[in-house]
Design a protein that fits this description.
By secondary structure, the protein is mostly helical. It contains 5 helices and no strands.
Length: about 120
């Protein structure tokens, strides 16, 4: 469980740092993002802070904070995935579905699974 938490933590935190430090680079690097509209530096940095915070919460959960910290991270990561699923359902983002499955939905499922496993183990 700790390995999963640290891997997810590193992915989320690294993405957040990238978004905050280089919004134009992040915006251009992620498939489908430029199709969502013009770059908004402030908005990308705001979301970067949320990703970084989720990463810190996941690492903290593995360092002893337990399932409540991972559940908070899963709330953002899962909510973000649900937003993308809803947008896909109404016709947006269909051209980057595989990217979203790997980069958006899989981390959300893993964060929820981590929280449930941590709760069951009493962490």
């Amino acid at each position: 469980m700790k390995i999963l938490a640290f891997i997810l933590a590193a992915m989320m935190a690294a993405n957040g740092v990238y978004m905050f430090a280089d919004p134009p680079g992040w915006y251009a690097a992620v498939p489908g993002v430029p199709d969502t509209g013009p770059l908004n530096l402030h908005f990308v940095r705001d979301i970067g802070i949320a990703y970084f915070t989720a990463g810190v919460a996941l690492a903290w959960s593995a360092l002893g904070a337990g399932w409540r910290a991972s559940a908070l991270a899963a709330l953002f990561i899962g909510g973000h995935a649900l937003l993308h699923a809803g947008e896909t359902f109404v016709g947006h983002h269909h051209d980057v579905l595989m990217n979203e499955l790997i980069a958006v939905h899989l981390p959300a499922v893993l964060a929820v699974v981590l929280s449930v496993l941590q709760k069951r183990s009493g962490s």
